[in-house]
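Reply to dn_fold:

You asked what the input looked like. This is it:
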Amino acid sequence: MSFPSRRLSVQAILVVATGVLSLIALSAVAVAVGLAIRSNVERSVFADTQRAATDWIGSMDTARPPPPVTTSDVNLLQLVDSSGHVVSASKAAAGRPVLSEVWPPSDDRIQQHTECTDSGCVMFTASRPSPQEEQVLWGGESHVVFAGRDQPAILSTYRLELYLGAGVLTASALLVVTAWLLIGQALRPVELMRRRIAEVTVTDLGLRVPEPPGGDAIARLARTANETLSRLQEAVNHQRHFASMVSHELRTPLTGLRAQLEESRLYPEMDPRVAIRDALVTVERCQLIIDEMLMLARIRTSPHRPALVDLSALAQDEAALRSTKVPIQVYADEPVVVCGNPVQLAEVLVNLLRNAQRHARSRVEVRVRRVGGLAEVSVLDDGIGIQPEDRERVFEPFARLVEARRREPQGSGLGLAISRAIAEAHQGSLTVEDSLQGADFVLRLPLPDDTTPVPPAR
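and this is what came back:
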């Protein structure tokens, strides 16, 4: 089911909501104002008619008083006896029938009413003189004075409602226009951000959205968008650099493979088994590069399943498997348990041990310990070491120093890059530290606390 609000913009939805709410609120105010005006007009009219009746009664001194002289809007005055005959009347009321058949009782001598006929509505006060006045003037016979006037137009028509309705519609329209302008101005930075983000392409990630001043939600959104674009640009640049290095590393063995195959085709007298053997060596190198490249991509993008891993036991096991080469001495006085992927952490230790044995002269030392809230694994060899300016470059994919190329010409240059990626995926770090001799690779991983959700050790 499709709702109209889904097809409206945020600005239109807010403006419609403003219009509806303002119409409801102003209508309620208009109804209250209309009722108050009507009530005030009625009270004013009845107060005038009551005053006119009281004044005329107070001026009577004979049984048939002369017609009263009216000087206000209350121009309909009649004195009626108990038989219903008009004894005296004002000029406007002369010749008219009795204004009403209402006859106030002695205990409620003043009553106010509105009566309507075909000629219109009259608002009047029926006032009965006191018993003493009736006794003095008419020998105790009851009389009633009617004082009234035609109902004001504001009460007899819907003119007031029309005026109030027009005012409500006008005010609502002004509020809607004002809301449209104000909301449009408030959302203008968002529209500018949308347009700028729409201009961002893979080939040009250097654009940034304009950041409005202040610390409101829109300003925070702009800053977050720029931070996201910066991370995206950094990731794309890294991928481009990585793809360029992969292409470069694969081009050399593939070019050699093609040369070997073409040579075997051009010179049939060559032993094909030698050509196949050399081609297989080249294919194995390409496969090694591709496998390690896929591993590096999976580490950076795939979540690992955590488990409790004892780094001390892991280091001793891996060192025992590699004891046939340069001797490895492991110093681990106590279990050091971290939360991580055991297969990936074992891959880090294998890479570090392989790298250390490749460059060591006589020995490799592995130390596993706790330092503060971190688990620390140090792999130290007694080789020539790594210069300070090269300590970060060795972790770049396919980066190989001269000594590494000399000792292992067929290496891929991805082992240390994979190891650092695994460390960072585990919220840790892998760096080269200062040492008196050789290269000291230090892996640091956070120790689990009571709030770390991990399965039991297996």
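Residues 1-5, 453-458 have pLDDT under 50 and may be disordered.
Hope that clears it up.
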